Amino acid sequence: MSGLVLKLGPHERVLINGAVIENGDKRSRLAIMTPNAHILRLRDAIHPEEVTTPVRRVCYIAQLVLSGDANGKDARMQLLRGIEQLSQVLTDHDSRTLLSQATAFVMEDQHYQALKSPRGLLPREERLFAAHLT
């Protein structure tokens, strides 16, 4: 993750390698130069009670690694299994692309990107569940 730039709003919080950092009164930018730093925007965090769908479950597992609550090597099989299950259901080109990216990021231990890729599936999953309920 070398060279990642975080743009933070006023008083926005971010978790970096287990430490919660809060921005001041003005917008700011942070350049994260350390490779493989564990970074999670707290506004994007999924809370345990929100883990109610397959995509959210995959995102949550990646989030646990970023927060330091799970070991990346231990979470790898859970992530890959979850991505594989999603790929059996989400067969359109865009979903397949995001899932392939997520798999590659998991294999490279790039957990921030492994979280970011499947997050793109959340709106699609929401639409599918809404269509199924009607």
Task: Report on the architecture of this protein.
The chain has a 3-stranded antiparallel β-sheet with strand order 3-2-5, covered by helices on one side. It is of the alpha+beta class. It has 5 helices and 5 strands. The chain has 2 domains: 40 residues, no CATH class; 88 residues. The mean pLDDT is 91. Strand 2 and strand 3 form a beta hairpin.
Number of domains: 2
Q: Strand portion, in percent? A: 15-25%
N- and C-termini, Cα separation = 42 Å
Give the topology string: H per helix, E per strand.
EEEEEHHHHH
What's the multimeric state? single chain
C-alpha Rg, in Å?
A: 15 Å
Task: Enumerate the spans where pLDDT stays under 50 for 5 or more consecutive residues.
Answer: none
What's the short story on this structure?
With 134 residues, the chain is of the alpha+beta class. It has five helices and five strands.
Structural descriptors:
5 strands, 134 residues, alpha+beta, 5 helices, 3-stranded antiparallel β-sheet, single chain, globular
List the helices and strands and how they pair.
Blueprint: E1 4-8, E2 13-16, E3 19-22, E4 28-32, E5 39-41, H1 54-67, H2 72-89, H3 93-107, H4 111-119, H5 122-133
Antiparallel strand pairs: 1-4, 2-3, 2-5
